[in-house]
From TrEMBL:
<feature type="domain" description="Lactate/malate dehydrogenase N-terminal">
    <location>
        <begin position="2"/>
        <end position="150"/>
    </location>
</feature>
<dbReference type="Pfam" id="PF00056">
    <property type="entry name" value="Ldh_1_N"/>
</dbReference>
<keyword id="KW-0520">NAD</keyword>
<dbReference type="InterPro" id="IPR015955">
    <property type="entry name" value="Lactate_DH/Glyco_Ohase_4_C"/>
</dbReference>
<keyword id="KW-0816">Tricarboxylic acid cycle</keyword>
<protein>
    <recommendedName>
        <fullName>Malate dehydrogenase</fullName>
        <ecNumber>1.1.1.37</ecNumber>
    </recommendedName>
</protein>
<dbReference type="InterPro" id="IPR001236">
    <property type="entry name" value="Lactate/malate_DH_N"/>
</dbReference>
<feature type="domain" description="Lactate/malate dehydrogenase C-terminal">
    <location>
        <begin position="152"/>
        <end position="334"/>
    </location>
</feature>
<dbReference type="Pfam" id="PF02866">
    <property type="entry name" value="Ldh_1_C"/>
</dbReference>
<dbReference type="InterPro" id="IPR022383">
    <property type="entry name" value="Lactate/malate_DH_C"/>
</dbReference>
<comment type="similarity">
    <text>Belongs to the LDH/MDH superfamily. MDH type 1 family.</text>
</comment>
<keyword id="KW-0560">Oxidoreductase</keyword>
<comment type="subunit">
    <text>Homodimer.</text>
</comment>
<dbReference type="InterPro" id="IPR010097">
    <property type="entry name" value="Malate_DH_type1"/>
</dbReference>
<dbReference type="InterPro" id="IPR001252">
    <property type="entry name" value="Malate_DH_AS"/>
</dbReference>
<dbReference type="InterPro" id="IPR001557">
    <property type="entry name" value="L-lactate/malate_DH"/>
</dbReference>
<dbReference type="InterPro" id="IPR036291">
    <property type="entry name" value="NAD(P)-bd_dom_sf"/>
</dbReference>
């Protein structure tokens, strides 16, 4: 029996993500937690005739910890899209002051009630919220780096879509599976168009078009924030992306299929390939790279890709590493200090 819990299920991402999870046949219990509106979302979803059972959990007050505990108990996988989104003119880091404590408190709930669950972090700034969750789980003595995932899948989704839009007559987005490494904000996002089947299309672009494409992937979130004009950031494309990673993990748990996804992970030495990766990214503790998934989580980091990147991508990587170092330190410091 697979139980999946969404923390922040009544939000812009939480609702469509919960809808997608509701129709996944591998999931038998879908547990929805939010601090507002979640009974309505759950009642609505519960009419869908898929085989999973839906439960909702709404705290009765700020002090009520029972609802979160009930939501989490027995969970195999927990997705966190709780927190505030950006408005035009803000960076993801501007969300730190509000979202850091939301994510820390939810991670504390996971440590106490679902310490073995896979944990997928969507809440921004991902480059800092993932270290916050890692440190909180460590503090509670239940940390397993193989089961912690910063969700950067939307960057891959965008990278595939945006290159295909430049070749509408000869490609579709599903022709591509671009590796996007680094982190999840602005220049920390490094799409590797020089690797795989995108190489020939990328190399055919003028230098100016190449720069525009990289910039569009790095700042794709801004396009949505501006278009929504104060009403939030990407929700539907994010729900698709978050679902894609969750579904891949569920597939890796239940089949012997080879499943590889990019994710922002802790380069902990217990993970095969992580120490090698760490040496290639200036000793950063967290970084997004393709990983092989298995029954127990991240089985292997595909670090070799870092040896194959172009000179231009090396320059992008250097900028990303510099910024990531500060973002990671900020998250770790929030719990340690
Ligand atoms: P939203 O405001 O629509 O929804 C957030 C939900 O979180 C709300 O329902 C709110 O009640 C709930 N919430 C707040 N505090 C909570 C708590 N303590 N416990 C449980 N739920 C709580 O926002 P959204 O558009 O869904 O975005 C959510 C987050 O996801 C933002 O931080 C946004 O920046 C981030 N995001 C990340 C990515 C990514 O690629 N990783 C993409 C898009 C958005
Ligand atoms: C995105 O990439 O769309 C999200 O991180 C939301 C944002 O703030 O841009």
């Amino acid at each position: 029996m697979v139980k999946v819990t969404v923390l922040g299920a009544a939000g812009g991402i939480g609702q469509p993500l919960s809808l997608l999870l509701k129709i996944n046949p591998a999931i038998k219990q879908l547990s929805l937690f939010d601090v507002v509106n979640v009974p309505g979302v759950g009642a609505d979803l519960s009419h869908i005739c898929s085989d999973s059972q839906t439960t909702t959990h709404l705290p009765s007050s700020r002090e009520d910890k029972t609802a979160l505990a009930e939501a989490l108990k027995g969970s195999n996988l927990v997705v966190i899209p709780a927190g505030v989104p950006r408005k035009p003119g803000m960076t993801r880091d501007d969300l730190f002051n509000i979202n850091a404590s939301i994510v820390r408190d939810l991670a504390q709930g996971i440590a106490e009630n679902a310490p073995d669950a896979f944990v997928l972090i969507i809440s921004n700034p991902v480059n800092s919220t993932v270290p916050i969750v890692a440190e909180t789980l460590k503090k509670n003595g239940v940390y397993n780096p193989k089961k912690l995932f910063g969700v950067t899948t939307l960057d891959i989704v965008r990278a595939n879509t945006f290159i295909s839009q430049l070749y509408p007559d000869s490609t579709t987005p599903s022709n591509f599976n671009i590796n996007v490494i680094g982190g999840h904000s602005g220049e920390t996002i490094v799409p590797l168009y020089s690797i795989g089947n995108s190489k020939k299309y990328y190399n055919d672009l003028s230098e100016e078009k190449q720069k525009e494409l990289i910039h569009r992937v790095q700042f794709g979130g801004d396009e949505v924030v501006q278009a929504k004009n104060g009403a939030g950031s990407a929700t539907l494309s994010m729900a698709y992306a978050g679902y894609k990673l969750a579904d891949s993990i569920l597939k890796a748990i239940s089949t012997s299929e080879e499943v590889v996804e990019c994710t922002f992970l802790n380069l902990d030495s217990s993970i095969k390939g992580a120490s090698e990766a760490k040496k290639l990214v200036n000793n950063l503790d967290f970084f997004s790279l393709p990983v092989k998934l298995g029954k127990n989580g991240i089985e292997e980091v595909k670090y070799e890709i870092l040896n194959d990147i172009s000179d231009d991508e090396k320059k992008l990587l250097a900028v990303a590493i510099d910024q990531l170092e500060k973002n990671i330190e900020k998250g770790v410091g929030f719990i340690k200090n």
